[in-house]
Amino acid sequence: MAGAFGWNTSFPSMKGYNIIGKINMTVIKTNNNGQQKRFFLNKPIYFWVRLILGIIFALASIDKIIHPAAFAKAVYNYQILPDTLINLTAIILPWLELILGIFLILGLWLPGAVLLSNILLVTFFGALVFNLVRGLDIQCGCFIISQETTSNLSMCWYVIRDGIFLLLGLYLLSHIFSGKRKALTTSMKNQL
Q: How far apart are CA 100 and CA 116, in angstroms?
């Protein structure tokens, strides 16, 4: 079995979307009969960013869905929401994260999924920064909340990590809505 890898980065335009970069990886495999099969991992960067954010949202939701009481305690520790909304948030938020993660992974209802994901990311980032400024060093409750261990990670790490997630989300948001605006502008020009 032989394999050849070719990396090509280019700046093409695709379906009305301006793509900042594109990864073009071709894998050629030869079977026992000497026949070659080509496998292409030729996806734009926004595809990989969408996939990564979808996986992050889906993975973040699993432990929260399994352990809603522990997640409710994590939400309470932020000391932002009134007590009456903590349990409701602990039940609804993980399912929303899971649904948004699945939508992002599968590419379903992208404008809405990307917009709602960004609203959540801004909210999470804001809550972390708010508690960092207040001097509270709480456990994030982002991925694994069922373990009662104290985390060695500081709030600064959580802010940096969620800032990176937010930048990825904003990239998707700008990509989705700039493409829609360009498609609308092109459509209006064609009608004139």
A: 8
